[in-house]
């Protein structure tokens, strides 16, 4: 695999006129192959202005790395990012994700506030970031502001936040959300695992067991969520 990466890097370096698209493809490939550090190496040699897709991928690489170099590069890119890119939800969401990974909650909030038309992916990134930074109440505050269709990711994030908080408010929100959850999501292993984990944390063993029984194809994580709850 390393040999393949080296070959790809070698071929890439031999291309004289590199396009932004080519850089994005290379960046993504390097992240996928767990060599995000090479993304920054490649970026340092970049002779053209990064476009919004380059920036999104660079932010992702910085988030994955989360070291001093990544923090420095990521923040510099963000500071220099053209204003018109800030309304690109993909770029902004990648930036939010990166900042949250860095623990920079306030700057992430500023970017989120500046997005004119927020989509569910932006909300998910913010809530996930709040959870990563252990500000679970803020995740629920934001959840209550959503007036969009929820995705499977939203359900998982909110169930996780409720499980962590485990207070009256969290129990109310978590159970209401679970009751309203579309039937097709109940066989989604990741969502079901987080829902069972939440119910067990609430001490609602009966509901957790009922949900467990209703899942057709049970993944190992689901067994784990139930077993951990008994401990």
TrEMBL record:
Gene3D superfamilies: Tetratricopeptide repeat domain. Coiled coil: none annotated. InterPro entries: PPR_At4g14850-like_plant (IPR046960), PPR_rpt (IPR002885), TPR-like_helical_dom_sf (IPR011990). One of its GO terms (molecular function) is RNA binding. Transmembrane segments: none annotated. It comes from the Eukaryota. PPR repeats lie at residues 119-149. It holds the Pfam family PPR_2. One of its GO terms (biological process) is RNA modification. This is Pentatricopeptide repeat-containing protein.
